[in-house]
Specification:
118 residues; mainly beta; OB fold (Dihydrolipoamide Acetyltransferase, E2P); 6-stranded antiparallel sheet; two-stranded antiparallel ribbon; 2 helices; 10 strands; globular
């Protein structure tokens, strides 16, 4: 996989990546891929809705309770009628067969919600 264009440290510093705890997850109606999650980022930030196209790899009920990294200062985006307030960060894996797989980067329970990554 090709490396994307180089960015400056100043560009990287603009990214606000935080640990969030999935409180609930459900399918977005009339979609096959989108899961709507309520994410708890702790006292300072609170809860946010984040929609991810990960249904091919994960069931909504299996996501609840996971601590995952999110980009939280991404501009909100309307995805099939649901406003998503961030983006889940996950690993994209290409198998030998050429098929794509997805790996969640789950953090230990000792890392509190809202912890900054980076």
């Amino acid at each position: 996989m090709k490396i994307k264009d180089e960015i400056s440290y100043e560009d990287f510093a603009k990214l606000d990546i935080r640990v969030g705890l999935i409180k609930s997850a459900e399918m977005v109606p009339d979609t096959d891929k989108l899961i709507k999650c309520i994410i708890d980022f702790g006292e300072d930030i609170g809860e946010r809705v984040i929609v991810s196209g990960i249904r091919e790899w994960y069931e909504p009920e299996d996501l609840v309770g996971k601590r995952l990294p999110y980009l939280i200062n991404l501009a909100p985006r309307n995805l099939r009628g649901v406003v998503s307030e961030g983006m889940l960060l996950a690993g994209s894996i290409i198998k030998d067969s050429g098929d794509k797989d997805l790996a969640l980067m789950e953090l230990s329970a000792g890392v509190p919600q809202g912890t900054t990554i980076g």
